[in-house]
Amino acid sequence: MNPTEPRSEYTVIVDISHDVLADDAGNESNALFVACTFPDEADAVKYVAEEIAPAVRIERFLAGSTPLALLLITIIGPVSAEDFRAAWQAYCQTDPLLAAYVQATEQAVVVWGNEQGETLGQANLKV
User: Fold this and answer.
1) Are 21 and 70 in contact (CB under 8 A)?
2) Alpha-carbon span 34 to 98, nearest angstrom
3) Which of 97, 4, 90 is nearest to 43 (CA)?
């Protein structure tokens, strides 16, 4: 983004949260959830580069060495899971720290849905 260019007032990130998940045996693992809603004419590359990827990088940095079992990004809007994945992986090529965080995560996935709660697609975010 050009620093002299006005920043869009629209934000695609609706929520970022951490949770501890437990399996049936009581083993706990950490998860990071990012919920996003894209505007009608969304540019996935722009929002991944300017908002989503930097937010995930900051969250992982603040978590320190805490291992992450799951990174789940949910998206609603016209950007498909595959389009998001392509933009995400292109951005990760320019950000080695984020790429390392994602690779160290057991599972990193984007799930694309609609406002009715239907799943329209999903994609693996790991390279």
Assistant:
1) yes
2) 15
3) 90
* pLDDT, tens only, 72-121: 999 999 999 999 999 999 999 999 999 999 999 999 999 999 999 999 99
56-66 pLDDT tens trace: 999 998 888 88
Q: How far is 92 from 99, CA to CA, in rounded Å?
A: 5
Six-digit token string for 8 = 């869009």
3-state SS string for the chain: CCCCCCCCCCCCEEEEEEEEEECCCCCEEEEEEEEEECCCCCCHHHHHHHHHHHHHHHHHHHCCCCCCCEEEEEEECCCCHHHHHHHHHHHHCCCHHHHHHHHHCCEEEEEEECCCCCEEEEEECCC
Separation CA 127–CA 123 (nearest Å): 11
Tokens of 115: 């406002």
pTM for the predicted model, two decimal places: 0.86
Q: Return the axis-axis angle of helices 96-104 and 53-62, rounded to nearest 10°.
A: 70
